[in-house]
Amino acid sequence: MDQLDDILNQDLDPTETREWIDSLDAVIHHDGTERAHFLLEKMVDTTRRSGGYLPFNPTTEYVNTIAPSQEAKSPGDAAMEWRIRSLIRWNAMAMVVRANRKPGELGGHIASFASSATLYDVGFNHFWRAPSADHPGDLILHQGHSSPGIYARSFLEGRLAEDQLDLFRMEVAGHGRALSSYPHPWLMPDYWQVPTVSMGLGPIQAIYQAQFFKYLEHRGLVPKSDRKVWCFLGDGETDEPESLGAISLAGREGLDNLIFVINCNLQRLDGPVRGNGKIIQELEGQFRGAGWNALKVVWGSYWDPLLARDSKGVLRKLMMETVDGEYQACKAFGGAYTREHFFGKYPETREMVANLSDDDIWRLNRGGHDPHKVYAAYHTAVNTKGMPTVILAKTVKGYGMGAAGESQNPTHQQKKLDDESVRHFRDRFQIPIPDDKLHDVPYYHPGKESPEVQYMLERRQALGGALPQRRRKAEAKLKAPELAAFEQITKGTGEREISTTMALVRGINLLLRDKQLGERIVPIVADEARTFGMEGMFRQIGIYAPFGQKYKPQDSDQLLYYREDQKGQVLQQGISEAGGMASWMAAATSYSVSNQAMLPFFIYYSMFGFQRIGDLCWAAGDMRSRGFLVGGTSGRTTLNGEGLQHEDGHSHLMAGAVPNVKSYDPTFSYEVAVILQDGVRRMMQEQEDIYYYVTVMNENYSHPDLPKGSEEGIIKGMYLFRDSGVGSRESGKGKSKAAAPCVQLLGSGTILREVIAAAELLEKDFGVKSDIWSCPSFIELRRDGFDAERWNRLHPEAEQRVPYVTGLLDGRTGPAIAATDYVREYADQIRAFLPDGMRYTVLGTDGFGRSDTRAHLRDFFEVDRYWVAHAALAALAKDGKMNAKDVSRAIKEYKLDPDRPNPLSH
Ligand SMILES: Cc1ncc(C[n+]2csc(CCOP(=O)(O)OP(=O)(O)O)c2C)c(N)n1
Ligand SMILES: [Mg+2]
Predict the structure, then answer these.
(1) In whole angstroms, how far apart are CA 96 and each of 22, 155, 233, 413?
(2) Distance from first CA to last CA of the chain, Å, rounded?
């Protein structure tokens, strides 16, 4: 590459070069830059066809993309907007500094918003529309740790009171009035829309939100509009794979309703983002390569005259040569340093600034701090058709913080300012706070009637109202179908064997036929529709494709061909679980973001869900998502051939950690139906802010009818599947002591079937009776149990609540044994709620999975019928109901190897 660069940089015939450039200049002059572009492309094409190797150069010069002559002019009052911005800056800084003067080290960030204040301000004043009768509203994803700046604006607008600013990061003491550390819809449900602070989650969500807006429009669910998704992110944040991982989708689908604003302050937490390179150039190349319109806002207006005089291109060359670490140093060390170390490099550039004072040089501003440049870029962005836009705005981290933080490496962590720094800040932004008050860093509000506040309010009114604001519920009242509508899957299958995956897909198909809900169902797959038997949907409801289907699909002669359609309902997101999840989140929050309640089902390999994209799942809870996540091919021994990386034995534990997730591991199709119906009712009809995680399996077996009265138990997580008739004290009354020993067997998922088989073995081989409990949700059982336990502790003299599990098992005889296809911890969660004295043995699939047949795997992990029966006998022996010899007999007859190693260990 170096060699090639050398060749390209050698000018063999400068006169010829000059002539070519003169011709080009003439074209630009007479016919404009577009014509020049066209000619250049033609020439490049001709050279390439002649066999010349012309590597693609995705970057442009290190100057603004929009030439000064092309800039749209802001209609705003620049001086007024500067004053407003200064007030916002001050209050944002004060909020953090005051919070950190209280005991408790509450944290917060000053430097990031200081760098992006102008970027937000121009949006708030001129571009971002709130939802109103005339417009659905834009969706803004804020850089999470810039939240103080957003609160400061709301304070000036009168939406937040002064005491609330002092409750920044005090969400416990604040009793609902506090301001959350970062954007969290869970904590401020009328305000924040999208959680963004986990780096990378904002950008990927923004892309899929924008896609979903188009999806809603193409499907005719909302009218077409010019609404936009604006996403703010940091330059350091772009290192996260999620940040850039889906940008090609936005380019491919021509998401011109999407605008990224990357705040390129050249720094991240520890130091420079690309000290030895140039982040803006790097990003420009990546975004342009992905089909985005990249707008660089590098230099502010003060540079325009210098650039205009740069006829030989020396300043541009210098700008290109200088690395980010050096640019940062210039802002840190000031005008004299910049004269010497930047402009001083070439005589031409040194000369250029000879008439400028050091202060003038210092004032040469960066594009992201120049409202005119920012306005011009935003104006171009919102008017760009057919492609998404990224704005790469160069800024200064800690702008205005002076020696306390401006362009300083540690500035990200700077939360406390000394009196001198506060004074400096006040002076720089001309905040009317007298010296004697400065020490307290008081907030400053100019009064509701002040011209500043009136201006802000007028601007917001013109744009439809205040932002941020969040809708809690969709207006339309939807009704969930009754359970009877799911009869196809509540009825037993007789001899026919199906999997719970098939049951679920049938359930979705039934919902698709529902008059009201059918069009609101959003099936989402990450290239695994065939794995889950959903390919029927391709033909039936189509795969969403914004430009329709431009080719004849290979399988077009088949009934279930691969049908892409602009009105398609299935979102086929390719091999990207993060993309599928972000897409699901967009659909799952559509009730709030677009006032359109949708019901998404994202179906994926369960191992590649909570484990792989858990942070998005967490954010989905925060965001009050409503919908179904479906962990397909679940269970460590049920997905038999795929091995260690595929076999999930723990996703329920992770799902159970998200407070508003309802997590289920059903065995029978009627359980799937009951869970589905209840979920639809709670999320669509009642509009509860919960979402569901349901694991389904690919093992085929026959399914019984829905047992009468089991619905409530299924939803609560446990019901009596088969009563031995002798297991309860009631039924055992009057019987002699010699009555058959009894056990309580618990299970979920496919392993419940092993449990049922174990009961037969126990009866046949040992005369032991079993009550069998199906437990579709150990998570729900645990939550209920701990809730009761907590309440009882706090109400010691009241009648004590009985945990659901305790109530069910109380009075039953014998030890309890649970087995699932998940790690032991899963079923072990209810241990505390077993009735006093009831022994509890838990079997599970702890250890790395491996590929083999189901039978071998279940034996290996010791969860098959023999191991369950053996565990039951061992528990009875411990209880003195049987003896050790019986256990030994089971080991022998069931061929259990007592000396083999624990599966956990190998
Ligand atoms: C996933 C994740 N990892 C780490 C962090 C901690 N963190 C918060 S801000 C930050 C630096 C951000 O730098 P940049 O994106 O450049 O934003 P700036 O503050 O410079 O605008 C880091 C590492 C986080 N919030 N999320
Ligand atoms: Mg940064």
Answers:
(1) 56, 14, 20, 11
(2) 48
CA–CA distances in Å: residue 641 to residues 52, 638, 863, 888: 50, 9, 17, 32
Q: How far is the CA of 275 from the centre of ligand 1 (A)?
A: 17
Helix axes of 78-101 and 371-382: crossing angle, nearest 10 degrees:
100
One-letter amino acid of 68: P
DSSP reduced 3-state for 41:
helix
Q: Distance, CA 198 to ligand 1 centroid (Å)?
A: 8
Beta strand 564-565 with 571-572: parallel, antiparallel or unpaired?
Answer: unpaired
Q: 607: closest CA among 563, 586, 638, 584?
A: 638
Q: How far apart are CA 749 and CA 821, in angstroms?
A: 7
Cα maximum dimension of the chain: 115
CB 640 within 8 A of CB 853: yes
Residues with CB under 6 A from ligand 1: 112, 115, 143, 145, 197-199, 234-237, 263, 265, 267-269, 273, 397, 412
Ramachandran angles phi, psi of 845, nearest 5°: -105, 50
Closest Cα to residue 819, out of 897, 735, 758? 758
The helix/strand/coil state of 619 is helix
Q: Comparing 103-107, 404-408, 561-565, 731-735, which segment has the lowest mean pLDDT?
A: 731-735
Backbone angles phi, psi at 517, to 5 degrees: -90, -20
**What letter would DSSP give residue 360?**
H
Residue 594 amino acid letter: S
Nearest to 507 by CA among 526, 487, 492, 525: 487
The closest of 127, 110, 41 to 391, measured between CA atoms, is 127
Token pair 């269970």: residue: 635
- Please report the pLDDT score of residue 9 as a whole number: 66
Rounded CA separation 7/393 (Å)? 33
Q: How far is CA 612 from each of CA 237, 601, 606, rounded to the nearest angstrom?
A: 19, 18, 10
Alpha helices, H only, 231-388: 241-245, 247-252, 279-289, 304-308, 314-321, 324-333, 335-341, 347-352, 358-363, 371-382
Residue of 146, 199, 263 to mutate, ligand 1, most atoms within 8 A of C-beta: 199
Q: E-assigned strands of 823-873?
A: 840-843
Burial state string for 448-474 with b = 16 or more CB within 10 A and e = fewer than 16: eeeebbebbeebbeebbebbbbbbeeb
Neighbours of ion ligand 2 (CB under 5 A): 234-236, 265, 267
Ligand closest to 116 (CA) is 1
Mutate-to-test residue for ligand 1 from 150, 237, 240, 413, highest number of ligand atoms within 8 A of CB: 237
The band of 728, judged by pLDDT with boundaries at 50, 70 and 90, is confident
Distance CA 638, CA 609 (A): 17
> Whole-angstrom Cα distance, residue 668 to residue 711?
12
Separation of alpha carbons 527 and 509, rounded Å: 19
pLDDT value of residue 33: 86
Contacts of 878 (CB under 8 A, 6+ apart): 815, 839
Whole-angstrom CA distances from 884 to 79, 272, 866, 891, 895 are 89, 68, 16, 11, 16
Q: Whose CA is nearest to atom 25 of ligand 1?
A: 198
Q: Per-residue pLDDT for 6 more than 60?
A: no
Predicted confidence at residue 736, as pLDDT, reads 44
**pLDDT tens profile 31-58:** 998 899 999 989 988 988 888 888 778 8
Q: How far apart are CA 121 and CA 375, in angstroms?
A: 10
> Is the overall model pTM greater than 0.85, yes or no?
yes
d(CA 194, CA 619): 8
Radius of gyration of the chain (CA): 33
Task: Work out the burial of residue 28: count CB atoms within 10 Å of its CB; fewer than 13 is exposed, 13-18 middle, 19 or more buried.
Answer: middle
